[in-house]
Amino acid sequence: MAEVHAALAPSLEALAVADQAAPVRCCSRYLTNRPGQFDYQRALAADLPIGSGEIESAHRYVIQQRLKLAGAWWKEETAADMLALRTLRANGEWNQYWAALEQTPA
Fold it and tell me: Where are the alpha helices (DSSP H) in 33-92?
């Protein structure tokens, strides 16, 4: 990451320049604010996806498919709970979740 910051440094816009006109500074800040999130070698070694394509695809069938039903409307708190359950199901953790819930004392 140090190499990336070093490469960006000569092109950093002055602080007086608005963010909308300072793409290099915004990129540098984005990278700085996400330490540890760009360790692609470790992610690949752990067989984790490193692209956003899978996430964008899942967004369509996990979230949008349910939220965008004709005539449906949602309160933020109930939508979040429902989406958490859909995520469990999409991740193959549905049965494990309910089994753990059944074992929790009332």
Answer: 40-45, 53-58, 65-67, 76-90
- Tens digits of residue pLDDT in 59-100: 787 888 888 888 888 888 888 888 899 889 988 999 999 999
Angle at 6 between CA 37 and CA 20, to 5 degrees: 75
What tokens does 96 get? 């494990």
Compute the distance between CA of residue 54 and CA of residue 47 in angstroms, rounded to an integer: 14
Task: Specify the residue for token string 């910051």.
Answer: 5
What is the overall mean pLDDT for the chain? 88
| Cβ proximity of 62 and 86 under 8 Å | yes
